[in-house]
Design brief:
The chain is of the alpha/beta class and about 170 residues long. The protein is built from 5 helices and 10 strands. Helices cover about 25% and strands about 25% of the residues. It is globular, with a radius of gyration of 14 Å. The structure holds flavin mononucleotide (FMN).
């Protein structure tokens, strides 16, 4: 079984493309398995010690719709000892006051359940006003803006994957 579970939701396909590239760079599906949350349960998440949770922000500061339906499942997962890395997608020009809120919303549900967050990411290079995913001046995880900074996506993914690989050994 793959040791890393990547749980994602994607309405327009941007997040799906990003997590597919992340999966590839982690070593393919023998190492990292993709789970679309539109058909996932807590039982699917439980076996992994290493998790990547990927969610775009939609409808002005809300979780993507499939994550909205899935998020209550997290209450049934025993997260003790698990390492979590977050991926958020958003649009800084269109939604500067709710930029990449989704990972922070998910994190608030599980932060007191014994998780360790890896893959923190600097806020430099993003032009936004407020985000629920900023903790102590850093983003909780990888931040991708396909609407305004598409040309930076490949480099960001590569750098971030290299930073989490040693944590997911
Ligand atoms: C109606 C609408 C609302 C959005 N709201 C936000 C938002 O509040 N914050 C943000 O950072 N991005 C927001 N976005 C941008 C999306 O998160 C972004 O386009 C993302 O890449 C979509 O990912 P997906 O293709 O995986 O669904 C919004 C986009 C639309 C069309």
């Amino acid at each position: 079984m793959a040791k890393i579970g990547i749980f994602y939701g994607s309405t327009k396909g941007n997040t799906e493309r990003v997590v597919t590239e992340i999966q590839k760079q982690l070593g393919g599906d023998a190492v990292a398995a993709l789970h679309n949350v539109n058909s996932a349960t807590a039982d699917d998440m439980q076996p992994y010690n290493y998790l990547i949770l990927a969610c775009p922000t939609w409808e002005i500061g809300q979780l993507q719709e499939d994550w909205e339906s899935f998020v209550d499942e997290l209450a049934d997962v025993d997260f003790a000892g698990k390492k979590i890395a977050y991926v958020g997608l958003g649009d800084a020009d269109g939604y500067p006051d709710t930029f990449i809120d989704a990972p922070g919303i998910i994190h608030e549900r599980i932060k007191d359940k014994g998780v360790t967050v890896v893959g923190w990411w600097p806020t430099e290079g993003y032009n936004f006003e407020a985000s629920k995913s900023v903790y102590d001046g850093k983003f909780l995880g990888l931040v991708i803006d396909e609407d305004n900074q598409k040309d930076l996506t490949a480099g960001r993914i590569e750098k971030w994957v290299a930073s989490i690989k040693p944590e997911f050994q």
